[in-house]
Amino acid sequence: MKCDRCYYENPEDVTHCMNCGEKLPEKEEVQVFTYFKPPKSKDTSPDNYNKRKNHEYYSVEYKGPEEKETKPVVLKPKKNLAIVIILSFFMTGLGHFYLGKYKRGLVFLIIALISGYLSTSIPLMIYLVIFNAGYQIIDSIICYKQQ
Is the pTM of the predicted complex or chain greater than 0.85? Predict the structure, then answer.
């Protein structure tokens, strides 16, 4: 069975792709039902016999897989954890920008700028700057692992 994500040919008995780990689609079964349709008339003439012989009284109904819309698979390149940590270390919020978490990175950057400005007049605010920098590095690692 071919994987929809990486197009790797897997054995029939596996449920997940052996190459990328994507869940494989379930095998679709086709069901055919045959049932008896009662006659409309109770005519026993030879013509009616020929109609019965030609399966007018039986109907076959096909119930199989329905047409599915196929969407193109877009594989996103995996981000590098080392780059996330280095960017987060050098500038607050930059690791989040690299991961595409723009709002979160902007919040960390604004907190760093405000607390940095306030630390010039209030010496205890330097602890908020240090805490914010450490927390945003940890948060960027968590965001990386959630991708």
Answer: no
